[in-house]
């Protein structure tokens, strides 16, 4: 999910702890005062930036004032670990720069004026979180455009500083830093540069895991999840490296002992903790983390990291199982809910399917303890059938509607494939006793059996035939009731 659009700065000041006792709500994004124009400054037309009404002179004076303000604070507050807040006029002015950097022509002008170096100097000298946040926010807006992104990315010193800032304790600063990194990684021209830097600095992995496992700031967690998702999607080697427990020891001074080294956080527990935090706060954020988890299980190292750790495996399975039974595609939901939830459903079911087939001997994956999954999966398949029927009945008059329908069908078909594979694996594990229990709890019924068989045939004919045999042992009358409708389907398979 690309954060490829410039962001208007947030006028509310942020003073949010990494772990507040009560999670604070996301600040409102308000419109700033209109930026100064060349007319306001009584300047000549030559003073305006390209085709805008923004004044070059105003930018010069504002950035010069920024440097002077930092110098003054360094002298006046040399002994302080942090500076007092910026004065209101200075903050308002640089926030206007933040707003105006949303304009590509302004971003190009700032680049020509060497703003990245000026802002880098401000960031490295700053002892004020708000100032640091704003400077990074300006760079984040500038990075949305290809030419300015290339200049920012080519600055080695700036690249190092940004990665080091991931250990900052100020959530707004972390949010803007993560957003800037994500924006850069989305530019194909500079992606390899950032991947190389990230691979060289092991603390990036550790800092992101710490944020995911400890922060309660929803906006920050979503952006970190999007960054990890993008990194894993484009670089499998990096993903494998981050999956391995203690894949790289944290960088510590030579005089530190082993006991002084901080513990290396596991990737999967960190992902899980962030997902739990976002479960009710941000469906979109939860979707991102479920996709990251799915990416992790596409490699052997990811699967092993789950199944070799009973604690991580159980925690992951229980969370995903709870999502399926409590949140996603519930009986009271309309059938079209699968359209809205198709991505997260595909991710959750793909991970659960991998865990089920990899660890059928583990207690937490045994189907007798997870019978409600049969009902959940058949309900998803039933809803998909309804959606497909409605889609086929819709008139396709416009090319745009046809393209959208084709894309929609593609993603729904992926969901169906994942769902069918998981259900076929479950059905192959059903015994007479489990089926009797499922019938008693209404997780298995005639309608659900028909839905499952319609969707599983002909690809999973072996699982279907095996199920029918065991079903006959458990409930002969139900099997006989199904035979008439099943015979044609089985013959076709």
Keywords:
elongated; 493 residues; mainly alpha; single chain
Helix content: 55-70%
Give the overall shape: elongated
Tell me the β content.
under 5%
How many angstroms does the end-to-end distance come to?
40 Å
Please tell me how large the radius of gyration is.
28 Å
Structural class: mainly alpha
SSE order: HHHHHHHHHHHHHHHHHHHHHHH
Q: Kindly state the number of beta strands.
A: 0
Our count of helices gives 23
Oligomer: single chain
The overall pLDDT average reads: 85
Low-confidence stretches: 10-35, 37-43, 246-253
What kind of sheet is the major sheet?
A: none
Structure description:
With 493 residues, the protein is mostly helical. The chain has helices spanning 56-76, 88-100, 104-112, 115-125, 129-142, 146-154, 156-164, 171-185, 188-200, 203-214, 218-234, 236-243, 267-278, 283-296, 300-307, 310-327, 337-358, 372-393, 399-427, 432-440, 446-456, 461-474, 476-492. It is elongated.
Give a short summary of the structure.
With 493 residues, this protein is an all-alpha fold. The protein has 23 helices and no strands.
């Amino acid at each position: 999910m690309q954060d490829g659009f410039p962001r208007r700065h947030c006028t509310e000041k942020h003073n949010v702890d990494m772990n507040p006792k009560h999670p604070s709500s996301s600040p409102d994004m308000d419109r700033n005062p209109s930026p100064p124009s060349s007319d306001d400054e009584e300047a000549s037309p030559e003073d305006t930036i390209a085709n805008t009404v923004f004044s070059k002179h105003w930018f010069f004076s504002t950035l010069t004032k920024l440097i002077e303000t930092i110098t003054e604070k360094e002298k006046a507050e040399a002994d302080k670990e942090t500076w007092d807040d910026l004065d209101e006029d200075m903050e308002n002015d640089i926030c206007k720069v933040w707003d105006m950097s949303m304009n590509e022509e302004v971003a190009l002008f700032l680049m020509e004026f060497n703003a990245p170096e000026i802002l880098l100097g401000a960031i490295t000298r700053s002892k004020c979180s708000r100032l640091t946040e704003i400077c990074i926010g300006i760079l984040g807006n500038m990075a949305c455009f290809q030419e300015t992104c290339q200049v920012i990315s080519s600055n080695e010193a700036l690249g190092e500083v940004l990665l080091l800032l991931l250990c900052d304790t100020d959530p707004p600063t972390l949010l803007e830093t993560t957003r800037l990194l994500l924006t850069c990684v989305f530019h194909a021209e500079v992606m390899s540069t950032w991947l190389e830097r990230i691979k060289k600095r092991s603390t990036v992995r550790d800092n992101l895991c710490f944020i995911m496992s400890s922060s309660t700031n929803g906006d920050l967690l979503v952006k970190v999840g999007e960054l990890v998702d993008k990194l894993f999607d484009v670089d499998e080697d990096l993903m494998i490296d981050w999956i391995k427990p203690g894949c790289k020891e944290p960088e510590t001074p030579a005089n530190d002992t082993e006991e002084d080294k901080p513990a290396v956080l596991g990737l999967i527990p960190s992902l899980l903790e962030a997902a739990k935090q976002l479960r009710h706060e941000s469906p979109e954020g939860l979707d991102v983390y479920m996709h990251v988890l799915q990416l992790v299980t596409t490699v052997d190292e990811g699967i092993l990291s789950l199944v070799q750790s009973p604690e991580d495996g159980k925690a992951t399975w229980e969370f995903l199982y709870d999502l399926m039974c409590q949140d996603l595609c519930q009986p009271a939901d309309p059938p079209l809910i699968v359209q809205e939830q198709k991505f997260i459903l595909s991710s959750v079911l793909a991970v659960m399917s991998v865990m089920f087939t990899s660890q059928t001997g583990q207690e937490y994956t045994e189907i007798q303890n997870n019978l409600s999954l049969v009902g959940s999966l058949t309900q998803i398949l039933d809803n998909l059938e309804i959606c497909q029927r409605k889609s086929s009945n819709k008139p396709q008059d416009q090319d745009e509607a046809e393209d959208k329908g084709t894309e929609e069908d593609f993603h729904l078909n992926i969901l169906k494939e994942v769902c069918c594979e998981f259900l076929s694996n479950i059905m192959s594990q059903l015994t007479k006793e489990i089926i009797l229990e499922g019938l008693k709890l209404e997780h298995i019924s005639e309608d659900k059996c028909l839905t499952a068989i319609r969707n599983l045939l002909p690809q999973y004919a072996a699982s279907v035939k095996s199920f029918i045999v065991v079903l006959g042992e458990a409930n002969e009358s139900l099997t006989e009731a199904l035979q008439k409708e099943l015979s044609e389907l089985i013959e076709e398979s």
